[in-house]
TrEMBL record:
Positions of the N-acetyltransferase domain: 27-191
Lineage: superkingdom: Eukaryota
PANTHER family: FAMILY ACETYLTRANSFERASE, PUTATIVE-RELATED, RIBOSOMAL-PROTEIN-SERINE ACETYLTRANSFERASE
Name this protein carries in UniProt: Acyl-CoA N-acyltransferase
InterPro entries according to UniProt: Acyl_CoA_acyltransferase, GNAT_dom, Ribosomal_N-acetyltransferase
GO-annotated molecular function: protein N-terminal-serine acetyltransferase activity; protein-N-terminal-alanine acetyltransferase activity
Length: 233
């Protein structure tokens, strides 16, 4: 079940190692919810809504994404794992994480990639190939089957060194850090800000590291991304 309101076609994407399947609530949401519940480190740098049940998660997290035209969610399937059909629930052992096009701006031909790889699939071919497939789809020209977008962003908490390194490795250019970019609910309140403002419960602030790949550099970067996708782990 593809994201119904997405600005562009949500194609199924694949190579020899992985496939990106449109996220299907009936197949993928249980494992996704359980992964975030039992592996809280996945959310260390993500200001994710706190939900206690799968039903609450579906209503408060998944449903708004499904209905937003700027959001496009994929399940990452590791094709190197035994499977009969990537769309059948029994193949949860091959479901390796999620990747999304988010904050998509059709008028400015720009989007952002967000990715979460489950614990057992980290430091494998999965993340590199998932990002690579989406870069090809978003930045390749329409004549080559892509969307021909002008800009693809990667944004992350400035303390998330692994994510920052991944962005650089995949060819994204570092643009800078937006200080106090947003309030961040995780962690202890900011006492200095409380004292200054005479308030209580001031949330931490997320400083956000910005990266991007833009259209005029993609032809040069593309072969390097493809080479990374073919690398043996």
């Amino acid at each position: 079940m593809a994201t119904g309101q997405f600005y562009y076609e949500q194609k199924r994407l694949e190579n020899d190692l992985i496939s990106l399947e449109p996220f299907d609530q009936t197949i993928h949401i249980t494992k996704f919810f359980n992964q975030t519940k039992y592996h809280p480190d996945l959310l260390k740098y993500v200001d994710f809504p706190q939900t206690e049940t799968e039903e609450q998660f579906t209503k408060e997290v998944y449903a708004p994404l499904h209905d937003a035209p700027g959001e496009c969610l994929y399940a990452i399937i590791d094709k190197t794992k035994p499977q009969t059909s990537s769309t059948e629930p029994e193949n949860q052992n091959a479901y390796a994480g999620t990747i999304a096009l988010t904050n998509t701006d059709k008028g400015n031909a720009a989007t952002e990639i967000g990715i979460m790889i489950f614990k057992d699939f980290q430091r494998t071919h999965v993340g590199t190939n998932a990002v690579g497939l989406l870069l090809q789809y978003t930045l390749d020209p329409a004549l080559d089957g892509g969307l021909g977008l002008r800009r693809v962003e990667w944004k992350t908490h400035f303390e998330n060194v692994a994510s920052r390194n991944a962005a650089l490795r995949m060819g994204f250019e570092f643009e800078g850090i937006l200080r106090w970019h947003r309030a961040f609910s995780l962690g202890v309140p900011v006492e200095a800000l409380e004292k200054r403002n005479g308030t209580s419960g001031e949330l931490r602030g997320r400083h956000t590291a910005y990266f991007s790949i833009v259209w005029e550099e993609w032809d040069e970067k593309r072969p390097k991304v493809v080479a990374l996708m073919q690398k043996k782990y």
